Every structure is written in C-alpha cells, then in structure tokens.
C-alpha cells in the first residue's frame, strides 16, 4: 500500500464505543494468547532452572527492561501519535522507527551487558548478550509493529503477531526440555534470542508490506524522527521510570540478597503480570484514542482524555479487583506448580496481590496525561517515584530481604497513583 492509500485521519482510529470494544476484544485475544504461551513458558523455565537459575535469568531480563525505554528514544510512541494525527506520514515514519529501534537496541544491549557482568556474574557473557538482544531488539520490534497495527485500527493483526511471537518461544522451551541435556541457562538464552529476533523481524516485514513505500527516504525520515528527540526523551523517561520501579528491585535483590530470593520474587511478580493481561489489552486498544481525545491539548484535551479514562474504568478496575482476589486465593498453589523450592513466593504473592488495583489507578491517570500532551509531568512523577523506589530498596532489602522488595513495590505504586490523580484533578480544577 502506497502512502496515498493510508487511511484518512478520521478513519485511523475508530473512536466509537463499538470500535473500542472490537479493538479490546482483538487485543484481549493477542494478550490472552501471549499470556497463555508466556505463562506456560514461564512455568517450564522456572521449574527446569530452579530458584537460583531462574533468579539469575530474571535479573538479566530486568536489566533489559530498564534499558528498553531508552533504546529507541520513544520511537513506538512517537509513531503511534503520528499514525493518529498524521497518517499520511506513516510509511516513511515506520521504516525510520524500525531502524532506530534496531540500532538503539544493539547499543542498549552492550550497555546493559556491562551492568549484568557486575550484578549477575554467574551468567556467562554469551547468555547475557543473547537474553538482552532478544528483548532489546526482538521484542522492541514486535512492540513497534503491534503498536502501528492498533493505531491503524488493525488490532487483529497485532493479536496474531503476539500469538506467533510467544508461541515460538514456548515451542523452543518445550524442545529444549525434551533434549537429553534439558533446559539450561545457556540453551534457553540462545533459543530465546533466536525466536525473539525471528518473530520481531517477521512482524516488521508484515507491517512494512502493508504500508508500502513512501516518505522522504530512510535517511531523511530517521533525521525527522530524531529531531523529535525532546518528545521521545519524555516518553523514554516516563517508561524508564516505570521500568525502574517495576524491575530495579530484581537487580538489587540479586545483588543485595540472593539469586534464590530474586527467583521467588520474580515468580510472584510474573504471576501478577499475567493477571494484568485483560487490563493491558483494554489499555493497548484505548491508547491511540487517548491521543485523539487529547488532541486539543490544554484543559480541554485533558478533560476529554479523562473522560475516556472514566469510560473504561468500570471494566478495568472491576477486572483488577477480581485479579487481586484470585491472586490472594491462589498463592498456595505456587509450590505445587513450581516445586517446594518456591515456597517463599507464596507470602510475596499474597502481598503483591494488591498491585493490580494500584496499577490500574496510575495507568489510567498516566495515559490521560500523555494523550493530552502532558507527558512531561507524567514522566517527572514517574522518575521521582523510581528514585524513591531505589532508595527504599537500598534500605529495606538488606534489612528484610524479599519482604523489603515487596514493601517498596507496594508503597511506590500507591504513591504514584495518588500523585498522578492529584495532578489531573488539580489541573482541571484550576481551569
């Protein structure tokens, strides 16, 4: 499809309730299938590697999560915004964003590997590099392609890409587990990288073929994307801060505590993430609509974006309440599924069961601010909370170990929810 064939601005995002429901259903299929495959992969890898091995791998992947927001300078979010507001520029912009994402991912891999050598010396360097490049290049390319599909009102395409990507990972884990050597850290790292890169590149190729050629040429488009570095930086800071308070504790628990303790904590946190799949499906479908609702900017844009957040709140908050109860009730099943070595994860999961309710609160406020062009204030609060999370972990982990990491996580998510909504209502009242 040539640039001229890109949908008109009014057709890129279906703002109707039925359109949001269709997109949410498609994204739920993708995120649900992803959760199913990722959950099965997680159970298999955690059982095979044990708490220490899984904790070490979890620490490396936490380093990837911390580096990911800065790897592409917010390219995916800039592109989604462009797809909603200037769809005729999408073909050239997508090629530029894919190039920046891949190149930035490789640079971020090298930097994150240096950190991992200090924090997780038990994992060989080739395995570290493989795990990092899988997430910082492969997963990042998938996120870019899926984001564009959703912005173009093709959520089913995004869902199919998610299913194929995580299905490949699960198939690789099963194949490794069936070999005589079993699933080892090195073997899993290699398979994880191969499947992630294949899936990410395939997703980009599919979208590129759909969009066709267009734009000003790759070099000019890359320069144009990088010229938006201020907006991209604000997206990166916000996402980086979010990654800090979500994943820094895993690195710190490995360094200040033990790999086994981090293994138990990572298991509990991963189960919470799996319970948040329906929430993320709705938010992913609604994300381009926040940009459309807040296009006017200022108070009017913020009021419209908050209206969108309120319209999806009954569904998202209701699900998160159910998820919290289910996590609390099912915590005792963890040792049955993963082995008795994971008994410490039971207590951690009972407390972390509160996270879905805290996260939905700050996600809704944060996306409303971003849609209304107020990413800077969102990023500032997220960065402040991330710094607070690091300081709390420095104090609590040496004293209380796993329990300290859990406490810091709950405090920081709660503070962020209160702070972002205080900002939103304060700005609306001043108008």
TrEMBL record:
InterPro entries in UniProt: Poly_Biosynth_Transport, Polysacc_synth
GO cellular component, one term: plasma membrane
Segments passing through the bilayer: 53-80, 92-120, 126-151, 163-183, 312-331, 351-369, 381-400, 406-425
Bilayer topology term: Multi-pass membrane protein
Main location as per UniProt: membrane
Annotated keywords: Cell membrane, Membrane, Transmembrane, Transmembrane helix
Keyword Repressor among UniProt keywords: no
Protein name, as recorded: Oligosaccharide flippase family protein
Species assigned in the record: Quadrisphaera setariae
């Amino acid at each position: 499809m040539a640039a001229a064939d890109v949908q008109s601005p009014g057709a890129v995002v279906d703002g109707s309730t039925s359109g949001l429901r269709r997109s949410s259903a498609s994204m739920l299929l993708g995120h649900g299938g992803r959760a199913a495959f990722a959950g099965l992969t997680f159970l298999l890898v955690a059982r095979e590697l044990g708490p220490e091995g899984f904790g070490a791998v979890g620490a490396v992947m936490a380093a990837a999560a911390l580096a990911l927001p800065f790897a592409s300078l917010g390219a995916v979010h800039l592109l989604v915004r462009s797809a909603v507001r200037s769809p005729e520029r999408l073909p050239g912009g997508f090629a530029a964003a894919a190039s920046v994402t891949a190149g930035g991912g490789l640079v971020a891999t090298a930097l994150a590997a240096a950190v991992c050598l200090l924090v997780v010396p038990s994992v060989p360097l080739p395995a570290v590099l493989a795990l990092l490049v899988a997430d910082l290049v492969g997963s990042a390319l998938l996120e870019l392609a899926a984001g564009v599909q959703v912005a173009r009102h093709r959520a089913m395409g995004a869902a199919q890409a998610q299913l194929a990507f995580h299905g490949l990972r699960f198939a690789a884990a099963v194949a490794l587990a069936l070999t005589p050597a079993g699933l080892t850290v090195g073997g899993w790292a290699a398979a994880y990288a191969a499947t992630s890169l294949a899936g990410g590149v395939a997703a980009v190729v599919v979208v590129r073929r759909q969009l066709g050629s267009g734009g000003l040429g790759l070099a000019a488009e890359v320069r144009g994307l990088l010229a938006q570095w201020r907006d991209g930086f604000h997206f990166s800071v916000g996402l980086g801060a979010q990654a800090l308070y979500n994943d820094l504790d895993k690195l710190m628990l490995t360094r200040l505590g033990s790999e086994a303790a981090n293994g138990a904590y990572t298991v509990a946190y991963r189960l919470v993430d799996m319970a948040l799949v329906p929430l993320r499906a709705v938010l992913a479908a609604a994300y381009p609509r926040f940009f459309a609702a807040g296009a006017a900017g200022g108070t009017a844009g913020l009021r419209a974006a908050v209206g969108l957040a309120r319209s999806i709140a009954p569904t998202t908050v209701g699900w998160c309440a159910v998820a919290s109860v289910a996590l609390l009730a099912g915590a005792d099943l963890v040792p049955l599924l993963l082995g008795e070595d994971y008994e410490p994860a039971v207590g951690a999961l009972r407390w972390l069961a509160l996270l879905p309710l805290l996260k939905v609160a700050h996600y809704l406020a944060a996306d409303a601010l971003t849609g209304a062009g107020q990413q800077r204030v969102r990023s500032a609060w997220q960065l402040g909370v991330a710094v607070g999370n690091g300081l709390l972990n420095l104090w609590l982990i040496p004293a209380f170990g796993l329990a300290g990491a859990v406490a810091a996580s709950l405090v920081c998510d709660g503070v962020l929810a209160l702070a972002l909504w205080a900002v939103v209502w304060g700005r609306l009242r001043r108008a």
